[in-house]
Task: inverse folding
């Protein structure tokens, strides 16, 4: 065991180093002069070195810019709103409602892209699988749309869902979508979502952990709405 | 130790191939007014797998910006006597050590403390891996340093290799991660090994690395 102690200690140091690196992320929302509904999200990352040696020189940041669209300066809970006029708000409200109330996989047909729907048909074949999919949504009773991130053709809607208990804070939820030729949105499968928010897309996965970027973005948006 | 070997192989894979998830849509090099040889690199990225029926939205890239140092002379280093930059000295000596590697102890002086402990353990326990690393480097005859991506205190050194054989000498590209410490420039796996700070890998990705090297060669060499 003894010979591994030093090794485990170093792994531990690396882990601390890594956690510190991942945490040091700044976020700024910069107004677009030509379009008041658009913000450039500037994410800056700077790793720290908490290892045994002291590094020299000035540390340099890496910056990632994302395009963020706002739909309202004061987002409202959509299911309690009488008339939801904005297309994107109608879409996320419909996605949320469908996920809460679906009885069979057929109910998802209208809101998903065809290839995503085909895959869902395979995974939600019986009623217990459908129940498993819907039960997490039963804890929430409303949704609001804070903004959307554009990446390539995809829109990632940053939403919050409201807890039914009235005490717990709203929970962030991201819905990936693709606008169709008829102008309607359809929900995407996870792959573009992963590119931007988690897995395969290397340029951004630095920041992500899905929770990490999602929470940073939503927090920044809420602060912006509060100060408007 | 199987687990460590796997980690190491994943790391090698990342450094060598990256993951083909995106394409570079544009790249600009903007000179830094304050530091000679330094540039801000601005890269626009789009995912590869674009949908076939995108409707009427225009694709929007994401933009990644980072600091970059160019080694504009780009000298092939093996026969070079007169080398001034510590980064180039490290690259040359590390390359020669890997090419002529007989004992893992020969690499000790190149690594920072943490990397050393881990590398020693991995190589001691996996002779096959050790052999494959040495075999890999034996196919190259020379190396040069193109530039370094700066991230925090880390330098992602971009290198070009000259192959041994063939009338038309071919090259390939690669890189090391280094850090400037009190006792000199050291190779590090620092934040990479546990896989947490993925920006590290991102900046070493094939698309970014290739686009940068092409751009630099086009503009400076």
Result:
């Amino acid at each position: 065991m003894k010979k591994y102690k030093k090794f485990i200690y170093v792994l531990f140091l690396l882990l601390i180093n890594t956690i510190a690196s991942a945490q040091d992320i700044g976020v700024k929302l910069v107004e677009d002069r030509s379009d008041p509904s658009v913000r450039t999200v500037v994410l800056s990352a700077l790793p720290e070195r908490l290892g045994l040696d002291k590094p020299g020189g000035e540390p340099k940041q890496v910056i990632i810019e994302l395009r963020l669209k706002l739909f309202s300066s004061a987002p409202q809970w959509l299911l309690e709103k009488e008339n939801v006029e904005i297309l994107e708000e109608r879409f996320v409200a419909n996605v949320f409602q469908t996920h809460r109330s679906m009885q069979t996989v057929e109910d998802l047909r209208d809101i998903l892209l065809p290839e995503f729907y085909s895959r869902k048909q395979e995974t939600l074949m019986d009623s217990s699988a459908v129940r498993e999919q819907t039960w997490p949504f039963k804890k929430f009773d409303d949704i609001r749309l804070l903004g959307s991130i554009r990446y390539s053709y995809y829109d990632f809607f940053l939403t919050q869902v409201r807890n039914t208990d009235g005490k717990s804070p709203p929970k962030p939820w991201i819905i990936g979508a693709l606008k169709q030729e008829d102008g309607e949105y359809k929900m995407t499968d996870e792959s573009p979502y992963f590119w931007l928010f988690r897995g395969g897309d290397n340029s951004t996965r630095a920041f992500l952990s899905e929770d990490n970027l999602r929470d940073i973005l939503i927090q920044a948006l809420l602060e912006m709405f509060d100060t408007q | 130790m199987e687990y460590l070997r796997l980690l190491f192989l994943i790391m090698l894979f990342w450094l060598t191939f990256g993951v083909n998830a995106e394409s570079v849509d544009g790249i600009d090099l903007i000179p830094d007014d304050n530091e000679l040889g330094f540039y801000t690199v601005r890269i626009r990225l789009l995912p590869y797998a674009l949908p076939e029926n995108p409707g009427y939205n225009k694709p929007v890239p994401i933009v990644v910006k980072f600091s970059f140092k160019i080694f504009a002379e780009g000298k092939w280093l093996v026969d070079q006597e007169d080398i001034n930059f510590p980064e180039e000295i490290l690259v040359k000596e590390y390359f020669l050590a890997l090419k002529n590697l007989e004992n893992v102890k020969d690499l000790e002086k190149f690594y920072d403390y943490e990397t050393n402990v881990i590398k020693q353990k991995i190589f001691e326990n996996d002779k096959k891996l050790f052999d494959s690393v040495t075999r890999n480097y034996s196919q190259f005859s020379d190396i040069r340093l193109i530039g370094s991506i700066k991230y925090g205190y880390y330098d992602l050194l971009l290198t070009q290799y000259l192959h041994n054989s063939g009338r038309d000498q071919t090259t390939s590209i690669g890189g090391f991660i280094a850090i400037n410490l009190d006792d000199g420039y050291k190779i590090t796996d620092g934040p990479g090994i546990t896989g947490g700070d993925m920006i590290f890998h991102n900046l070493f990705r094939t698309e970014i690395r290739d686009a940068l090297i092409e751009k630099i060669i086009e503009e400076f060499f």
Q: What stands out?
A: The helical segments of chain A are 2-23, 87-101, 114-123, 127-138, 190-197, 202-205, 210-227. Chain A touches chain B through 56 residues (CB under 8 Å). The beta strands of chain A are 25-31, 38-45, 62-69, 140-151, 154-163, 171-179, 185-187. The first helix of chain A runs from residue 2 to 23.
